[in-house]
Design a protein that fits this description.
Helices cover about 0% and strands about 55% of the residues. About 5% of the residues are buried. By secondary structure, the protein is an all-beta fold. The protein starts with 10 loop residues before the first strand and ends with a strand. This is Autotransporter outer membrane beta-barrel domain-containing protein. One of its GO terms (cellular component) is outer membrane.
């Protein structure tokens, strides 16, 4: 997943299980308070494996 260059607030929903295979996910976030907009990922099943995550500051 890479939403680089976009605005924060995107949601990736996995309607089953998620297996991380050492991939990289880049999320946009406004670096402010607890209620600042950010991208997020919802997994409705089980998770396993490893994934790396990075954040991109969205102005």
């Amino acid at each position: 997943m890479n939403s680089e260059g976009g605005k924060p607030g995107n949601v990736l929903t996995v309607n089953g299980n998620y297996t991380g295979n050492n991939g990289l996910m880049t999320f946009n976030a406004t670096l402010g308070g607890d209620n600042s907009p950010t991208d997020k990922m919802n997994v409705k099943g089980d998770t396993q494996g490893n994934s790396r995550m990075s954040k991109m500051h969205a102005a």
